[in-house]
Amino acid sequence: MYLPILTYPDKLLKKTSVPVAKVTTKITDFINSLFETMYTSETGIGLAAPQVGENINIFVMDVHIVDPDNPENKKPNPIAFINPIIIHSEDTIIYEEGCLSCPELLIDVERSKHIIVESLDKEGRPQSHKLSDLSAVCVQHEMDHLLGKLLTDKLSRLKREIYKKQRVRDRAAG
């Protein structure tokens, strides 16, 4: 089921999420809906529960695995994260990030280049992922959503106000 994506400056995006107490069929169905919504967006590689109005510690991502011998050959790699925790990070990378909740905003963000993240999968089993580059950036971006942080928080106050006025104007027009 497709879920509507909240966009800035919706106040629900700023709420801190709570841990998932138990992985149920309802949670698994919600995760499937997150994937469906993310894939419908065409440009999204990750989507967090708060972006669809649910303030629980869940996000999904699909950063395709590229065949090094044939870069045109890409394999889907969907992963669901419940109650994620980054247990290790090292090095830094600057990556231009966008966000489904912040349309038309692209900014350079400094993140950890390599991370190890532990969480539960959509069946409630523990999982650990060692991720680098875009996959690591995506996880950190989505985990920001769980803390109520947006790309707009990385802008100067002036740029954030200009972007906010643009978003409000766009909403009123559309």
Contiguous runs where pLDDT drops below 50 for at least 5 residues: none
Shape: globular
Alpha carbon gap, first and last residue:
24 Å
Instruction: Give the C-alpha Rg.
Output: 16 Å
**Main sheet, how many strands, which sense, barrel?**
5 strands, antiparallel
Mean pLDDT: 95
Order of helices and strands: HEEEEEEEHH
In helices, the fraction of residues equals 25-40%
What does it look like?
There is one protein chain. With 174 residues, this protein is an alpha+beta fold. It is built from 3 helices and 7 strands; from the N terminus they run αβββββββαα. A 5-stranded antiparallel beta sheet has the order 1-2-5-6-7, with helices on both faces. It is globular, with a radius of gyration of 16 Å.
